[in-house]
Amino acid sequence: MKAIVNTAVCAMYSAPSRENTLEDEVLYGMVVDILDEPAPGWYHIRTHYRYEGLVCGTDLLMDEARAAQWETLPRKIVRNKNFCDVLSQPKVQGWIMQHVPRGGVVAPVAEPEDGWQQVMLADGRTGYMPAAVLVDLPASPLSDDEETLRQALVDAAMLYEGTHYRWGGKSPAGIDCSGLVSMAYMLCGVIIHRDASMKDEFCMRPIPREAMKPGDAIFFPGHVAMYIGGGRYCHSTAKAGDNGFTINSLVPGEPDFRADLLEKITAIGSIFPTVNE
Fold it and tell me: Same domain for 158 and 249?
């Protein structure tokens, strides 16, 4: 059975209670597979990026036919704002129908007019959003050109600048290290493993450190960052004084150099072919 996430940010846990450590967050309008109901009102789900966990049924639109139809519609995602309201009218005085975070999904209705995009919500209601905050939901990598895609990945990661650290978080309300890197890739039409590791069933694989370029992932024990070029990387860290999105240097002597991380690098991950492949 399929369902649609019907709340701005749907919390995913390892046990059927909100009094548990957050494992992941699924965003508005994403379609999930219902695997079973281990406790009343709690559902074991699998996301389209193959992550599993337990969510509260009140966060889902449990409608198989609606979910199947939703997946056939042209869809857009919020990209250029942290959150955006869906309003009842194409003007700022409209009442708020739904909050949608970056990465959340809506379905466009007709063409934009006067800067407003009419959109359909998961439950079939229609409202309005500023057209400029939306982009097409990418079904494949945004570009076939490697340099263009690399820059798009870096740009997507940088959208989360200022976001605080949240274990299991994956939205501008709070994000962890793998949430940041996996969301940057997802916004560019690429699905990688959501945790701070590489898995064979996803498209990322290890490359030599000397081959690292912007957009590649840097792995540490239980942590992951994105290389942004110039000897620098961005990541979301719970380190005291940072508490969230930050940029550090791999170059000794730089003021934001972190020796504790440089010496713990376990792998460099890339979705791109190396020169000799």
Answer: yes
Rounded to whole angstroms, how far apart are CA atoms 170 and 185?
12
- The Cα–Cα gap between 182 and 188 comes to 10
Query: What pTM was computed for the model?
Result: 0.95
d(CA 153, CA 179): 14
Q: What per-residue confidence (pLDDT) applies to 273? A: 86
The answer to whether residue 277 is domain-embedded is no
Tokens of residue 155, six digits: 């740009």
3-state secondary structure of 109: strand
Domain of 243, in residue numbers: 146-270
Query: Which has the closest alpha carbon to 274: 184, 213, 227?
Result: 213
> Active-site residue numbers?
177, 223, 235
Token pair, residue 39, equals: 């406790």
**Residue 212's CATH number:** 3.90.1720.10
Residue 251 lies in a domain: yes
Chain segment 116-145, per-residue pLDDT in tens? 999 999 999 999 999 999 999 998 999 999
Domain count, the chain: 3
Confidence of residue 75 (pLDDT cuts 50, 70, 90): very high
Residue 265 and residue 208 share a domain: yes
